[in-house]
Amino acid sequence: MVFEPIFPSAAVKATAAGFESGDEIGIFITKYKDEKPSPLQIAGNWGSNLSLTNSGISWTLDPKVYWDEGKFDIYGYYPKTDVVSVDALPFSVQSDQSITGGAEGMSAYEASDFLWAKVAGVSRTESVPMAFQHKMCKVTVKLVKGEDYEGELPEDVAVYVHSTITEAQVDLSTGDVVIDNHRPSTSIKARKAAVDRFEAIVVPQRLSNRVPLVEIVCGQISYLFDSTVQFKSGTEHTITITLSDNPERVAIDIGGQIENW
What we know:
Blueprint: E1 14-15, E2 24-31, E3 47-54, E4 59-62, E5 72-78, E6 89-92, H1 108-111, E7 115-122, E8 130-131, E9 133-134, E10 137-145, E11 157-164, E12 167-170, E13 177-179, E14 186-189, E15 191-194, E16 197-202, E17 205-218, E18 221-231, E19 236-243, E20 251-254
Parallel strand pairs: 1-8, 10-19
Antiparallel strand pairs: 2-3, 2-5, 3-4, 5-7, 6-12, 7-9, 10-16, 11-14, 11-17, 12-13, 15-16, 17-18, 19-20
């Protein structure tokens, strides 16, 4: 019998994730027993928390794992970390997502974006396409000049998302995210994507009571808006702030969520 690697270095595809050279994905592989899928475990799988690394041209699995007869389930997640639990993996989004460079060159925004994929019941094949999903929620804050707003938008604007819990637990077998309600809420500084657009990644959660949600800081002036909202896994919310020369006429609009961010 000729054994072939499950992930040959030139044949792996990742869709809709935008991975770059140096990115490292964690991989778990379970083998079916008696035509039934085996449960994902922290150890003792066909492959446990393997490193799948992008070279910019191809992907390389370390250590290599080889096909056997039968079927397999393959789980992938990003960014790779030391896994202490497969059904309640701790994960936190960063509180200052404006930081552009950090450990291993990863920005704080990128480090906050948890991706997950699963391929079920796959047999020996030349390639294993994996479609990764965002499991956190994206918040986009757009600044719009009102009719009475004169001049250009200031360059020194800072945007904060308040009143959210930044810690969660992820079930690697399903991709489900559960907020850690034992943690206090905090504030997230959004990254600046453009002069009129700011982005932040938050843990999925419901803010059922009206709380301070978004703050816009321009020099010595601060605009604080409160609201209720449900941040759902894998979705994007757009919050539009219409600025005015009259601080009392500054308005907020929370648009409908965009599924499948």
